[in-house]
Amino acid sequence: MSTSFADGRAGIDAALVRRLIAAQFPHWSDLPVTPVEVDGWDNRTYRLGAEMTVRLPTAAGYVPAVAKENEWLPRLAPALPVAVPPVLAVGVPGQGYPYPWSVRGWLPGETAQRAPIADLPRFAVSVAEFIRALQRCDPTGGPLAGEHSFHRGASPAHYDAQTRRYLATLAGHVDTARAAAVWEAALAARWNGEPVWFHGDIAGGNLLVVDGGLAAVIDFGTSGVGDPACDLVIAWTMFSGEARHAFRRAVGQDDGTWARARGWALWKALLVLAESIEVDPARAAANERVIAEVLADHDQLG
């Protein structure tokens, strides 16, 4: 691996993308390359002309997603109610960049984190319908949950030690007794169903909105086949009140799946809270709110 990429994001810039395109896809070399307005962490994304994007993993741990998405997105797309990223080309390591990368079709819209959504309950139903459609896709041969999905789709027990460590360090900031009860319930609600497709990161940043409605779902890097509980976390991270009720009604799922979903939501919110509590008060407050609502849900429904 080139040392210039040792910390993941360093060394990835528009100039690198231009060199990669010129070397591997010279028929696109005259197109402008510009950073996207809102970027992710696992991958850096650049506009290529008006109709394409270039997507480059930032670290070795995110590399398995490239081949997975390139193989499975075209298979899943026809069965889904909204657009997913179209794969146009696959790049190989070069120009000092050590990982495979891809060229995708550009999908219009703003992320749900930023877009105005006048009817959030209706939007929540659209998200639920996407999840249900994804679950109906044929799982035969699909990638079973594991390291490539950062264990989304498997049992939340993979993060048991980490969660208990955060519960200990966040005592005084979180009602740790109630949070521990949520976590224990998640571990006890073992999944015994048939494997289904899951996205793994259904979140506002991966939902594209046009005219207030769901237009596309992006970033299938943590997708796979297994337990769909991880796809319900948006019930607390984005929805509340009537929108959450609408999502819950539309997406269905049994009580055990919801218990595991609360565990997934709790784990991630504890992680982010622990990382941000001293340095980013707004982010910390947002995750404290998620934890409080997960605990309240467990008290009412658990």
Key features of this structure:
three-stranded antiparallel sheet, five-stranded antiparallel sheet, 302 residues, 10 strands, 9 helices, alpha+beta, Aminoglycoside 3'-phosphotransferase, Chain: A, domain 2, Phosphorylase Kinase, domain 1, 14% strand, 2 domains
Explain this structure to me?
There is one protein chain. The chain is α+β, with helices and mostly antiparallel strands and 302 residues long. The chain has 2 domains: 3-106, 2-Layer Sandwich (Phosphorylase Kinase, domain 1), CATH 3.30.200.20; 111-301, Aminoglycoside 3'-phosphotransferase, Chain: A, domain 2 (Alpha-Beta Complex). The protein is 40% helix and 14% strand. It is built from 9 helices and 10 strands. The chain has helices at 14-24, 64-76, 120-136, 160-169, 176-188, 234-237, 241-251, 255-276, 281-301, and strands spanning 33-35, 43-48, 52-57, 87-91, 101-105, 110-111, 196-198, 207-210, 213-217, 224-226. Strands 1-2-3-5-4 form a 5-stranded antiparallel beta sheet, sandwiched between helices. It has a 3-stranded antiparallel beta sheet with strand order 6-8-9, covered by helices on one side. It is globular and about 60 Å long. The N and C termini lie far apart (48 Å). The model has no long low-confidence stretch (mean pLDDT 94).
